[in-house]
Amino acid sequence: MTAGIESYAPIGDGRTVALIGLDGSVDWLPLPDLTSTPVFARLLDRETGGCLELAPTEDFETTRRYVPDTNVLETTFTTARGSVRVTDAMVSGVAGRMPWAELARRIDGLEGTVPMAWRIHPGTSLRTASPWIERTQHGDVIRSGKTALVVVGFEHGPEAPDPDGTSGPRLTGSFTASKGSRHLIALAATHDEPLHLPDPRNVDVGIDRTIDSWRHWSEVFSYEGPWEERIQRSALALKLLIFSPTGAIAAAATTSLPENPEGGKNWDYRYAWVRDLAYTAHALVRFGLREETHAALSWMLRTIREHGPELHVMYTLGGELVPDAQDYPVPGWGGVGPVVTGNPAREQLQLGVYGDLMAICRTYVDAGNVLDIGTGRMLAGVADRTCDLWRNPDSGMWELPEERHYTSSKMGCWKALDDAVALAESGAIPGSAERWKAERERIRLWIDENCWSEAKSAYAFYAGSDELDASVLLHAPTGFDRGERMSSTIDALTDELGAGPLLYRYSGVSAEEKTFVACAFWRAEALACVGRHDEALDLVDQLVALANDVGIYAEMIDADDGTAWGNTPQALSHLAFIATVLTIRDVVPEEALRGR
Description:
Shape: globular
Distance between the termini: 38 Å
Low-confidence stretches: none
CATH class of the largest domain: Mainly Alpha
CATH topology of the largest domain: Glycosyltransferase
C-alpha cells in the first residue's frame, strides 16, 4: 500500500532534500542536487525506485518530531519489548554545507531490546540507469551512472552484499538495540568526482554539529507572536528549499506527486518561480534574515538580466532556462502518473510576475538596502514594459492554457506600477513616475469596469466572467482593495469554492484536484485586511491543525479526509501561512492575539 504524502517528513542540507516516511524508510533522495534524477525514488516507483529502509523487525508504533529549532528528525519506534530513537540528519560540515552528501541515521536504544534491520536499495534513477556494486580496496561502492555511494556505520551488523538481486543490488544488515546502546548507519555520495569515505565516528559527531548549526540559524529567527512554533517550523521548511550553491529557492522538493487520484496534473516543482522566490524573500526580510534574502534577490536579478529582456516565469536552481518536459516510464505515486521533469509553463506570459518582482525589490529597499545601477535600470524597464503589456491577455497565476484577461494578473500589474512609483519617488530607480502613476490609475479603472461580477458581488476570475478565482485575495494585502468589494469577494469565494476551512483555486476545478493550501491562508489574510479579525484568527487555528504530524504542508489537502496531495514540502503553502500570520500581527489588536 502506498503511504500517504502527509506521512513524509523532509530533511536537507542546502543542496538536496530527503523524504522519510513514518515507517522509517527514505523514499526520496535526489543526488547530488535537488533537481538531479533521484537515485532513491520509491515515492514514484515502488518496484525499482530505490530506498533506504530502517525499522524494527517486529510490529511497532511510531511517533516523531523534529529536534526543536532544527531540520533534524527524531523517530521513536516502540515495540512490545522496547523502544528506540532514530535521529536522521543531512549532515553539515564544520564551515557549512558538506562538499559531498551525507545522510546519517543514528539509533539509540531507549528501553528493553528491539531487533532492527536496514536495507540500502539503490534505484534506477527513474529507469535511466542500472546501479551496481563495485568492490574496492576500501569497501563496497554503489555506482549509478556518475553517482557513487558508500555505506558506513558502527554497531550496525552489515551483511554480505547482494549484488545480483532481481530488483537490483542491495546492502543489508541487522542488529539489536538495547537500553543505552548506540548504532549508526550513514550514506555518503558524490557525483562525477572522487568519493570520500567518512569515518562513522565523525559522522556521529556531525549529527550533533548539524543540530547545533540549525539551532544557531533559528536563533537569528526574529519572529515573536501568535503561532510562534508553527511559524518557525514553516521558516525551517522554507530553508530546506533554498539551494545554497546559488541562493535560488525551489517551489517544492519533489516532482510528479499528483493533485488528484486520476492523474494528469503531475508537475515538476523543483525550480525557482519568480513568484515564489519573491514571496519567500518578502517573508525573510520581515523576519530580518539578511543573508538568505540578499542571496535570493541577487540570484534572481542576475538570472533575469542574463536571460532577458523578457521576464520568464521560472528558472532552474542553477540559473538556466527550464528544460522541456520529459516523461519517464515509471508508475508514479500510487500508480498515478505521469512522472515528469521539466515544466511546460516555462514560456508562458504571466503578467502578475511583474508585480512580484517589483514588490520584493521595494521590500528590499524599504528594509534599508540599496539597489545597484543595473537593477534600477532593469526595474524601470519592467515598469515601462508593464505599461505596454497590461492590456494583453495572459495565462494567469495558475498557468492555464487559455489566455484571458485574468483579474489577478491586472491587479499584479497595478501593484508593479504602484511599487515602481514608490521606488522612483525615493530615488531607488530611474524612470518616469508620472507615466507609471497615470497607467496605474488606468488599470484600476479598467478592473473596476471589466472585472467585477454583479451576479456574484465579487471580483471575477477574468474580465466579463461570473466565475471566481481565489488568487484575487492576494490583492487585499497589496492594498489594491481592503474595502467592501474585497469583503464581498471573500464571501462569494467561501460560498462557491470553500470546503470548510479549505478553498479550491477557481470555479470548476474541484472536479480536477483537491483544495489548495495557500488559497485557504490567503482567505484568512484577506479577512484580516478587511477588518474581519475574529474570522481570520479562527480560520488560521483550523488550518494550523491540518498540517501533518511534524508541521509540514504539501500543495493540496483533500477536504474530505485531510490527506495531502501534490508536491511536498510546498513553499507556497508555508509562505501563505507565514504571510498571513505576519499580516495578522500587523493589523489585529494585540489583545486579540493573546493565547495564540
